[in-house]
Amino acid sequence: MASELARRISRGVKATFAASVVDMLANAALIVLLTRVLLTPEEYGTLNFVLAALSVVAILASLGPPKSAGRYVTEFAETRPGLVPTVVRRSFAFIAVLSIVVGLGLVVLGRPVAGLIGQEQLIPFLAIGAVYIVGVAMTQYTRELLRAFNRIEWSGVVRVVMGVGRVTFVVAFVALGFGVSGALAGYVAGYLVAALVGGWLLYARLYRRYDSGEALRGSEDGSTDVTDSTDATDATDVDDPDEDTAGISRRIIEYSVPLTATRGANVLDKRIDMVLVGMFLGPAAVGYYTIAKQVSEFGSIPAQSLGYTISPTVGEQSAKDDRGRARRVYETSLRYVLLLYLPGMVGLVLVADPVVTHIFGTEYGGAAPVVQVMAGFMLVNAVNKVTSDGLDFLGRARERAIVKTAAAVANFLLNLLLIPWIGVIGAAIATVVTYTIYTVANVYIIHTELTLDVEAIGRLLVGVGVITAVMAVVVRALIPMVSGLVSLLLVVGVGVAVWAALATVGGLLDVRRIRAVLI
C-alpha cells in the first residue's frame, strides 16, 4: 500500500511538474515577447492592471464550489461512489450560473463603477472581461475536479493547453494590431480552450462512468480500470435518499463559505496590490511590479507541483484515519521545499539586477529592487503551496479562511500606507510581510492537525542555512563577471552545483530518492 501511494504521488508530481514547466516556459516566452517586442512598458502595465482588476471581480464567479466539490468527490469516491455524479452536477450548475451572472453584471455595472473610481481606462475592456471571467471560472472548476479524482496528469494537460493556447492567441492577436485588447482576448481564448478540454475529460472519462454505476480504480501504471460498484452504492446510499439532492447541494454550499473567503482573500492579496500600484503610480509601475511577481512565482513552480499533488493524498490518508502517513507525506514535502527555496531566495536576491536587464530589457531596470524584495515571497509562497490546499482537504478550511482574510486586510492596509510613501517597493514589502504571517499560521494549523516533528524541521533549517551561506559567497564573487545571458546562466549553474554538492555531502539531499521520483 505504501509503495502504491508513493508511485501515485510520483506520477502526480512528474505530471504536474511537466505541465508546470511547459506552462512556465510558455508564460516566460509570452512575457519576454510582450515586454521586448509587442508592447511598450505602459501598454504592458495597462494589460496587467486590467487583468488584476478582472481577477478581483472573478472572485464572485468561482467562489468556493470548485474546491468544495473537490473535497466531496475525494471523500465520496472512497466511501459513497454513487453520490459522486450528484456532486459534479450540482457544483457545475453553481459555477455556470455564478460565472454568467457575474460576467453580465460586469458589462452592466462596470462603466459606472470605473467612472466612480476614476479608472475609465478599464471601460474598453469590459465586454472581453466578461468572457474572461467565465473562462477562468470554468478552467479552475475542471482542474479542481480532475485533481479531486486523482487524475493529476489530466489536470496537467488542461494547464498545458491553457499555457500554450494563451501565448499562441495573445501573440497572434497583438501581432494583428489589436494591442492591449488583443492581448486580453488571447488570454480569454486560452482559458476557453482549456475549459473545453478539461470539461471533455471530466465528462467523457470520469463522470459518465460513475453516472452509469461504475467506480474508477487507478491501476499501478496510472491507467483507469472500471469495475461494477452497484453493491457498494446500494450499501451506502440507501440510508439517506435525499442526500443526492438538497443534502449534497447544502453541503457543497456550506463548505464553500470558508473556501470562498479564502479564495477571495487570496485573490485580493495577490491582485489588489497591482490595482493599487496602478491607481497610485501608473501603468509603468504596474509593469515593474508584475515582472517581480512573475519571477518569484516562476520560482515557486516545483513547490506548486508538489503541493497540487500531495494535497488530495494528505486528505485521503487522514480520511482513512492514517494520520501518521499523512504527516510523513507533508513533512517530506516541506523538507525538500525548504532545502530548495531558502538558497533559491538568497540566489535571486544576488542575481536580480542582471536577470531583469538581460531578460526583460534595460527599460525595466526599475524592477530589479522589487525582484529582490519579492524573493522573500518566493520562499514563503513555496512553503504555502505544499501547506494551504492540504488544509482544505483536511477539513480545516474555516481556520485557513480566517487567517487568510486577516492577512488580505492587512496587506490592503499596508499597501495603502507604503505605496504612496516608498512607491512600488512598498507594495512588495507589504506582500512579503503579510504572506509570511499567513504561511506561518497555515503551518501551525497543519501542525495541530498532524503533529509535525518540529525539532527535525529546526535541524533542517540550520543545515540549509549553512549551505545557503556558502553558496551565496560563491555566487556573489562571480556576479561581476556577468556580461550577458549566457554568463548569467553559467553563474546560476555554478550556484546550483555548489548547493547540490553541499546538500548531498551533508546528507540533506537523497539523490537516489529524487531520481526515483522524477524518472
Describe the structure.
This protein is mostly helical and 519 residues long. The chain is 85% helix and 2% strand. The chain has 18 helices and 2 strands. The chain has helices at residues 2-38, 41-62, 65-79, 84-116, 126-148, 152-211, 230-237, 243-281, 283-299, 301-319, 323-359, 368-385, 388-393, 397-422, 424-450, 454-478, 485-505, 511-518; strands spanning 214-218, 224-228. The chain has a two-stranded antiparallel ribbon. Strand 1 (214-218) and strand 2 form a beta hairpin. Helix 3 packs across helix 10 (301-319). It is globular. The protein starts with a helix and ends with a helix. Mean pLDDT is 79; it is low at 215-243.
Q: In a few lines, what is going on in this structure?
A:
This protein is mainly alpha-helical.
Tell me the number of strands.
Answer: 2
- Round the Cα radius of gyration to an integer and report it: 23 Å
The oligomeric state is single chain
Order of helices and strands: HHHHHHEEHHHHHHHHHHHH
- Which blocks of ≥5 consecutive residues have pLDDT under 50? 215-243
Count of DSSP H/I helices: 18
Structural class of the secondary elements? mainly alpha
User: Can you give the helix content as a percent range?
Assistant: over 70%
Please indicate the percent range of residues in DSSP E strands (runs of 2 or more): under 5%
Shape: globular
Strand order in the largest sheet = 1-2
Average of the residue pLDDT scores: 79
Characterize the largest beta sheet: strand count, sense, and whether it forms a barrel. 2 strands, antiparallel
Q: Give the end-to-end Cα distance, rounded to a whole number of Å.
A: 21 Å
